[in-house]
Amino acid sequence: MPINPKSKPFAPAKVASTAELADLQRAMWRVVSRPLTGGSRMQRRWTDGRPTSAVAGEIAKPNDRLTSFERLEIYNRMYWFRVLDSLYDDCPGLRAVLGDKRFIALAEAYLVKYPSGSFTLRNLPSRLAKFIREAPRHTKPHTALCHDLARFEWARVEVFDTAARPVFTMDDLLDVPAAKQGKLKLALQPYLQLLRLEYPVDDFILAVKQREAELLRGDASNAPSALRKLRERKTKLPRPARTHVAIHRLDGRIYFKKLEPAAYRILVALRAGKTLEQALVTGIPRAKQARADWAAKVQGWFRNWMELRWLCRR
Predict the structure, then answer these.
(1) Structural domain of 278
(2) Pairwise CA distance, residues 272 & 241, whole Å
(3) By the number of CB atoms within 10 A of the CB, which of 148, 187, 265, 285 ranks highest?
(4) Who has greater pLDDT, 255 or 210?
(5) Which of 78, 96, 129 is the last residue of a domain?
């Protein structure tokens, strides 16, 4: 492709203002974040067809050991190895289903479609479930399971560091006259994640974590034959089963808790701003069993939710 000599330079030759510094930073980011080749090297051709070495020469000078291209390639590779490593750590369930090779292929395709737009690696998996739905070829024949796992593993990230609000206590409830308690609107902690899933991925994640812990103990035990057998033993994939689960934290640790469908519906209704009375009507099924028969069960749920600090002041 012919190069237009009057075209705008890729990066400023000198930095004499904050605007030029911003232009240089953007140019550097475009090079560093560009996908690697299949051999994990920097691409030799730029998007307009010219050699990437020419682009690199506008950003970095060579030294007595490395060319401009080689200097920027170090950062290009570092960036991609770091973001892939971060996703690898965040998604043990997906890795267990796909295997490392297919997982890395999924992660690379995902980051090309949805590159990081945040200052923190924390947000990398935020759109992974969306991408799995859009590009099922990377996860077939387990796309539905992988979609649930991506949702679940992102929810764990959100639980870890999302803010908490002041807890709603029994004293707060007693401050409300009994006649008005049905009209009470309760809020849920922002970090609490409520998921309706098609697979029991909470149990699967626990099994994967247990196997990883056993592998670490095996590495330390110096028993090669036992360790080889453990590595060959794969975690059994779960069968489809509608599952309602809450992911929460308590005293700095993350927990999973299965919910009965009615309990899940009540919590979702409370989060949507329904009054306590409306949430109970939404959650408790219309069946032959009298609603009064649900009283002890629902009281037990709310007692447990308050002990776990899920309810907070609106």
Answers:
(1) 163-198+243-312
(2) 26
(3) 148
(4) 255
(5) 78
